[in-house]
Design a protein that fits this description.
- There is one protein chain.
- The chain has 121 residues and is mostly beta strands.
- The chain contains no helices and 11 strands.
- Strands 2, 4, 5, 6, 9, 10 and 11 form a 7-stranded mixed sheet that branches. Strands 1-3-8-7 form a 4-stranded antiparallel sheet, with no helix packed on it.
């Protein structure tokens, strides 16, 4: 059974830090490009950060560059998102995503159920 299980969300004050984790199971994690998305109330889901299957150069949304760091551990089948200097506008449900891409075509995609991050004083 395929699972992506996020953890690490919670309430944090502005300027604080959180580290999100996403544990994968039921598929070959190391074959998949992985990403973090987020969805704030009243907004569409947006990509926050992504990294390819081999852990190459990550890609970040402009709004989080310099503050967030995505990383992966293909031995532990886990994806991470280190979030520093958090702002109230970072408040959202954060989702883990995994995509299998062959020859530039997405052939499989999985989503976690999300973890809530609230940045507030």
């Amino acid at each position: 059974q395929v699972q992506l299980v996020e953890s690490g969300g919670g309430l944090v004050q502005p300027g604080g830090s959180l580290r999100l984790s996403c544990e994968a199971s039921g598929f070959t994690f190391s074959w998949y490009a992985v990403s973090w998305y987020r969805q704030a109330p009243g907004h569409e889901r947006e990509s926050v950060a992504s990294i390819n299957s081999t852990g190459g150069v990550p890609d970040y949304a402009d709004s989080v560059k310099g503050r967030f760091t995505i990383s992966r551990d293909n031995v532990k089948n886990t994806l991470f998102l280190q979030m520093n200097s958090l702002k109230p506008e970072d408040t959202a449900v954060y989702y883990c995503n995994a995509k299998l891409i062959n020859w530039g075509i997405k052939v499989m995609e999985y989503w976690g159920k999300g973890t809530l991050v609230t940045v507030s004083s």
